[in-house]
């Protein structure tokens, strides 16, 4: 089998950079100013110094990325591929944004050709931005799920996704199912896609306001039958939404309780947003090991609020990073890290670049229960991104003054976009650059 040796700067996490606070964050990473990543059969087989690897593997084909920074590919823990066409739609908050922009667009996915087209566009945008894994909501149409997984398989990408379920009258005609059809169609899609190639199925009730209790119950039962699937939904994104939920579920103690009542909580749950949590909700998320997908560009764009990343991490919550496109305003995980930094600043904490990079890679991969991605380590799948840390004049003039790798990478985190992604590899195959 052919070996490929990537050369450049390398940065690999050896521990969780949140464990001991921002000042100790750099100690969680191993940096090599001239490193190498050796790939064979789609996997990383060694990470070490460039010269040592060259000497040991003279037969390997060389991909010399010069000063490029080699990292694991970015992992987006929550997004909506069907909303690619309505990204950056002006002027509305969550409920009006869903009714005015999102639902009309999602109706178009009753056309499988349209779904295939948008899936291809979205995955190509992701790869151009160095994102090698996406966790996506699809629409109510099973063909939208087929389109997503087929497009990912064609690109060799590890992805997660599922059919979005909505059976309450709050969802419009044409985007409504029933408890039974949500169960049946999700079950058939699990049989078709879960574990096929690099696909993971995520059981996907959109959120409590668009599902009846009967549907939440049916999807809780389905998850109990398929506990190795993920379960994704939305939680406590806007205060108006929470009031709406409490009006619809008068017996529930809080928003999270509407999911818990039907078994929709656990280690493989990924709750999007989770901004306005009660103490009880935070405690339950931590106790159950549920994941939270932080979606910072969405939270500012739709005006949702300031996610308490520092507080939730201190409480022991599991958190990953996500674009939430098209509620989020960018396909770039660099821009998403920048927004996470800005929101944490407004909360009084400066996240270290190591913490931001970890959230966008290993942090999100942990939410997906995929230890084979998000890490630059022997045995991991060779999904990689190479960053140019001088991709624009503005970034370059700042990075030139850097005294260490963190100062060198931070301008790219704050100001970079797809121009900073000089190469993307999926399972060892170059797909950009
Ligand atoms: N809550 C329920 N559905 C959605 C969605 O599509 N986007 C966002 N941001 N929040 C939601
Ligand atoms: Zn979302």
UniProtKB/TrEMBL annotation:
Residues 35-60 form the Aminodeoxyfutalosine deaminase/Imidazolonepropionase-like composite domain. InterPro entries: Amidohydro-rel (IPR006680), Guanine_deaminase (IPR014311), Metal-dep_hydrolase_composite (IPR011059), Metal_Hydrolase (IPR032466), Metallo-dep_hydrolases (IPR051607), MQNX/HUTI_composite_N (IPR054418). It comes from the Bacteria. Gene3D superfamilies: Metal-dependent hydrolases, Urease, subunit C, domain 1. It is an enzyme of class 3 (hydrolase). Catalyzes the hydrolytic deamination of guanine, producing xanthine and ammonia. This is Guanine deaminase. It comes from Pseudoroseicyclus tamaricis.
């Amino acid at each position: 089998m052919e070996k490929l040796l990537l050369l450049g700067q390398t940065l690999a996490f050896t521990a969780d950079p949140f464990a001991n606070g921002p000042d100790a964050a750099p100690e969680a990473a191993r940096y090599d100013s001239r490193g190498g990543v050796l790939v064979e059969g789609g996997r990383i087989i060694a990470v070490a110094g460039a010269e040592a690897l060259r000497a040991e593997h003279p037969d390997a084909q060389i991909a010399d990325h010069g000063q490029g920074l080699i990292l694991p590919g970015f992992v987006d823990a929550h997004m909506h591929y069907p909303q690619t066409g309505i990204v950056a739609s002006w002027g509305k908050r969550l409920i009006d944004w869903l009714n005015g922009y999102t639902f009309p667009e999602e109706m178009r996915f009753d056309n499988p050709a349209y779904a295939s087209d948008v899936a291809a566009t979205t995955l190509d945008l992701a790869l151009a931005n160095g994102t090698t894994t996406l966790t996506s909501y699809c629409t109510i149409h099973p063909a939208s799920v087929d389109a997503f997984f087929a497009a990912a398989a064609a690109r060799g990408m590890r992805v997660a996704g599922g059919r979005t379920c909505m059976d309450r009258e709050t969802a419009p005609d044409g985007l409504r199912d029933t408890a039974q059809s949500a169960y049946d169609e999700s079950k058939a899609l699990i049989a078709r896609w879960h574990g096929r190639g690099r696909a993971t199925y995520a059981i996907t009730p959109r959120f409590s306001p668009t599902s009846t209790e009967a549907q939440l119950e049916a999807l809780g039962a389905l998850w109990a039958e398929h506990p190795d699937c993920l379960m994704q939904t939305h939680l406590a994104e806007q205060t108006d939404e929470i009031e709406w939920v409490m009006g619809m579920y008068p017996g529930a103690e809080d928003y999270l309780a509407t999911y818990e009542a039907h078994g929709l909580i656990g280690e493989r749950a990924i709750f999007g947003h989770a901004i306005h949590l009660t103490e009880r909700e935070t405690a339950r998320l931590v106790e159950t090991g549920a994941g939270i997908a932080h979606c910072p560009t969405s939270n500012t764009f739709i005006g949702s609020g300031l996610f308490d990343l520092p507080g939730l991490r201190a409480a022991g919550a599991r958190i990953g990073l996500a674009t939430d496109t098209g509620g989020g305003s960018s396909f770039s995980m660099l821009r998403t890290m920048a927004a996470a930094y800005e929101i944490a600043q407004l909360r009084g904490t400066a996240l270290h670049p190591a913490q931001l990079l970890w959230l966008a890679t290993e942090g999100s991969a942990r939410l997906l229960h995929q230890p084979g991605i998000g890490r630059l380590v022997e045995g991991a799948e060779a999904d990689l991104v190479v960053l140019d840390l001088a991709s624009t004049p503005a970034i370059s003039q700042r990075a030139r003054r850097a005294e260490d790798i963190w100062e060198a990478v931070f301008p790219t985190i704050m100001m970079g976009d797809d121009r900073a992604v000089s190469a993307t590899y999926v399972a060892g195959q170059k797909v950009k650059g």
